[in-house]
Fold these 2 entries.
Entry 1:
Amino acid sequence: MLFSRDTSPEARRILIEILRKKTPAEKLAMVDEAIAFGRELTMTGLRMRNPGASASELEVLYLEHMLGQDLARNILAATRAGRTSLLADPDARRRG
């Protein structure tokens, strides 16, 4: 939701006008900042719920939270195996 319910029509009009004047690069930067802020909020919550967790444990918890356990485990296994592409099928070359 772009606006809260208590945003007045005039404030809404002004905000839309400001956003329309932004360049695509500025809009992308805003999205990037919002994503970084969301990640920090998530990491803060994970740290609070897991005070003894190391940085690498928190990264695993973050991946599991964002992607689900199965996908997070697949990504971590591929990373540990040194695969350069997470999408590449490791058995594809053998099947030829």
Entry 2:
Amino acid sequence: MTNSQEQVNGHSKFSTKIRVRYAETDQMGFCYYGNYASFFEVARVEALREKGISYRALEESGILLPVTHFEIRYFQPARYDDLLEIQTQITQLKGVRITFAYQTFNEAGDLLNEATTQLVFVNAETQKPMAIPENILQQLNQ
């Protein structure tokens, strides 16, 4: 897995590469559709890490980030041993929510799918949504 970051339209776009393993394919030889949620989680965690934010540190400080919405549109399948590039971009930081957009490409540069996830900042102790902490908001907006 490799990661990189670039600026696109004023927003950071992150790139994470993941190779499709044999166990992640279905009987048709395609990457099973449900695996993309896991791939996007990897890409999202790495995008935050590039901004200096660790999921572990968030959780240790009492902040949770559950996914509240996941949407995906498939165009082409990935196959066993394909090296996928997942481009991730934070598209919204508002109130208690953070939204990520993803595009998955194969090695030929073909767009395989587009997706979004929305997560909510939650106080681990109260289990209630909380405003994005100012220090995290600053890091994400850099």
